[in-house]
Design brief:
Blueprint (H helix, E strand, L loop, with lengths): L1 E5 L5 E7 L5 E5 L4 H13 L2 E5 L3 E6 L2 H13 L2 H12 L9 E7 L4 E5 L6 E9 L10 E4 L8 E4 L5 E6 L5 E4 L7 E9 L6
Antiparallel strand pairs: 1-2, 2-3, 3-11, 4-5, 5-6, 5-7, 6-13, 7-12, 8-11, 8-13, 9-10, 9-12
């Protein structure tokens, strides 16, 4: 299923829902070109430090105020509202109005192992921002319904100003191959499910 819509700047949003290996929505472009450039410039000016755990290694923002300022920028620009709307419409769910924003920088040697984020139950959207990604730079997103990455497997290159969203579940395995050179950023939007009132 593909939908196209014209934004005010005549950028064309292309939204695609894929059912394999698990249901996810792909969006390109996520932001207007000038918004993406501004956001990337903000990320490039931030201070980062390496974070390493058993199944991942990437850089995180060292200054909490910088992260909060960026989150406020995403609120003011209604980006969080747009992302939530895509997830609700195309993944058939209802989400809480606010998002938790995680910021990751993938520099050479970083990556994320295969995992599902369970038992956390939430909707995720990953926005890729970088300067002209090329295949030889690595850092490709991998989606699978199995921890051993047997087919079907979906590969998503981290092209600038593209994104994908999904619901965490027992079969929403995902990973990021090792980044080989240069730098890319991910803005991760995390939405809790809306509580159903009696």
């Amino acid at each position: 299923m593909v939908k196209s819509a014209h934004s005010e700047s005549n950028d064309v949003e292309r939204l695609r829902v894929e059912r394999e290996p698990f249901t996810h929505v792909q969006v390109a472009p996520v932001l207007k070109a000038e918004e993406a450039e501004e956001l990337l410039s903000v990320l490039e000016r931030m201070d980062w430090q390496r974070r390493k755990q058993s199944f991942y290694e990437f850089d995180i923002v060292t200054n909490q105020q910088s992260r909060e300022n960026l989150q406020e920028r995403l609120v003011r620009s209604r980006t969080i509202d747009r992302v939530r709307g895509w997830l609700e419409q195309y993944l058939s769910t209802q989400l809480a109005p606010d998002a938790v924003i995680d910021l990751h920088r993938y520099s050479p040697g970083t990556g994320v192992g295969v995992h599902t984020d369970r038992p956390t139950a939430e909707a995720r959207f990953v926005l890729n921002l970088n300067r002209s990604w090329q295949p030889n730079r690595g850092g490709i997103w991998v989606l699978s319904a199995r921890s051993d990455l047997k087919p079907p497997v979906h590969f998503l290159p981290p092209l600038h100003n593209t994104g994908f969203g999904f619901l965490t579940s027992a079969v929403s395995y995902h990973a990021l191959s090792e980044r080989l050179c240069s730098v890319t950023y991910a803005v991760v939007f995390r939405f809790a499910f809306k509580e159903i009132e009696d």
